[in-house]
């Protein structure tokens, strides 16, 4: 359960202000929310299953202290990445707006491709080096889907008037705190 709750919280925060949230909002303006959310869920479940597999292999190969320090540094990097922000390119935005394929297929493929190498995938790999794969997988998947569901809901209600800087700074601060705690735990313990 610890892996589930930690992964859910970390990935929910990681997803705030991420490019995938912008994609979710864009798709939600074109398609009904349910197929968009289903596509996000399918893509996320597959990407995060791959991520926990990689994390498990890395976790078994490295000593715990080294993993904690690397994970802490990675989370500090995620904080900086989050501060930098993510934006949809004009091409990505146009693709999301003009796609006429089945909504489920379009969203699933778009999210799968956009999540490969994304900070939430890297954060899931990092979490899986320290926690059980199943709890990390389920927690990270639910955390991401919940954050994107929130983006769909807020996006439909508020349009483009979201406090993007506040979201970005809050998520960056949370990553920095996780990073510092991991490094401190490794050095003290």
Describe what you observe in this structure.
Belongs to the GDT1 family. It comes from Sphaerisporangium rhizosphaerae. The chain crosses the membrane at residues 34-58, 64-83, 104-128, 134-154, 166-188. The chain is mainly alpha-helical and 189 residues long. It has helices at residues 2-15, 19-30, 33-61, 64-84, 90-98, 103-115, 119-128, 133-158, 164-188. The protein is globular, with a radius of gyration of 16 Å. The model has no long low-confidence stretch (mean pLDDT 79).
Net shape: globular
**Rg computed from alpha carbons, rounded to a whole number of angstroms:** 16 Å
User: Number of DSSP helices?
Assistant: 9
Main sheet makeup: none
Strand content: under 5%
Helix and strand string, N-terminal first?
Answer: HHHHHHHHH
Helix content: over 70%
The average pLDDT value, as a whole number, equals 79
* Structural class estimated from helices and strands: mainly alpha
Low-confidence stretches: none
Alpha-carbon distance between the termini?
A: 22 Å
Total number of beta strands: 0
Keywords: Membrane, Transmembrane, Transmembrane helix
Transmembrane segments: 34-58, 64-83, 104-128, 134-154, 166-188
Organism: Sphaerisporangium rhizosphaerae
Membrane topology: Multi-pass membrane protein
């Amino acid at each position: 359960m610890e892996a589930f709750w930690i992964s859910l919280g970390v990935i929910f925060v990681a997803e705030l202000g991420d490019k995938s949230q912008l994609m979710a909002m864009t798709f939600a303006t074109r398609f009904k929310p349910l197929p968009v959310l289903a596509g996000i869920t399918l893509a996320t479940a597959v990407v995060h299953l791959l991520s926990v597999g990689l994390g498990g292999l890395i976790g078994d190969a490295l000593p715990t202290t080294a993993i904690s320090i690397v994970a802490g540094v990675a989370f500090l990097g995620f904080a900086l990445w989050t501060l930098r922000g993510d934006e949809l390119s004009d091409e990505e935005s146009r693709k999301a707006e003009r796609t006429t394929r089945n909504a489920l297929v379009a969203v699933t493929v778009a999210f799968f491709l956009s999540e490969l190498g994304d900070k939430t995938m890297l954060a899931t790999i990092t979490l899986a080096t320290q926690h059980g794969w199943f709890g990390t997988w389920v927690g990270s998947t639910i955390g991401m889907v919940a954050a994107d569901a929130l983006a769909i809901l807020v996006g439909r209600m508020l349009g483009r008037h979201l406090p993007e800087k506040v979201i970005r700074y809050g998520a960056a601060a949370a990553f920095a705190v996780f990073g510092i705690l991991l490094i401190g735990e490794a050095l003290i313990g």
